[in-house]
């Protein structure tokens, strides 16, 4: 199982997520192609209600303790309650602008 899949599975199985996004950002760093060492996690959960940012991050770091010790060099965490997510992004995040591409026939 890939490191990314392990992160996704552990978070999904242990935190009731309204939105979960795990992005492998390793290709943005000076690592060999195909590396899984740098990740960004965006996690929206009502379980974070009333928790400080540090408490949220500690909970995630505890779940991913083995991966952090053995596989992950950097982990960027973006944790939100549902209300914080809505305040920041509205009801749903905006889609990226179209870069063109082939037209469908």
Topology:
Elements: H1 3-14, E1 19-24, E2 38-44, H2 53-63, H3 65-70, E3 74-80, H4 82-89
Tell me what the structure shows:
The protein has 105 residues and is α+β, with helices and mostly antiparallel strands. It is built from four helices and three strands. The chain has one domain (3-89): GMP Synthetase, Chain A, domain 3 (2-Layer Sandwich). The chain is 35% helix and 19% strand. The radius of gyration is 16 Å and the shape is globular.
Task: Sketch the topology as an H/E string, one letter per element.
Answer: HEEHHEH
Shape: globular
Give the total of domains: 1
Distance between the termini: 38 Å
The total of helices stands at 4
Structural class: alpha+beta
Largest sheet: 3 strands, mixed
State the low-pLDDT regions, or none: none
CATH-assigned fold name: GMP Synthetase, Chain A, domain 3
Structure summarized in a few sentences:
With 105 residues, this protein is an alpha+beta fold. It has helices at 3-14, 53-63, 65-70, 82-89; strands at residues 19-24, 38-44, 74-80.
């Amino acid at each position: 199982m890939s490191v990314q899949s392990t992160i996704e599975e552990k978070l999904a199985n242990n935190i009731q997520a309204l939105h979960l996004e795990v992005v492998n950002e390793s290709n943005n760093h000076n690592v060999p192609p195909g590396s899984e060492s740098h990740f960004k996690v965006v996690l929206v959960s009502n379980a974070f209600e009333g928790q400080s940012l540090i408490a949220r991050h500690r909970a995630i770091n505890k779940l991913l303790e083995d991966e952090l010790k053995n596989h992950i060099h950097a982990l960027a965490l973006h944790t939100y309650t549902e209300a914080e997510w809505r305040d920041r992004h509205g009801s749903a995040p905006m889609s990226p602008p179209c870069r063109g591409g082939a037209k469908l026939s």
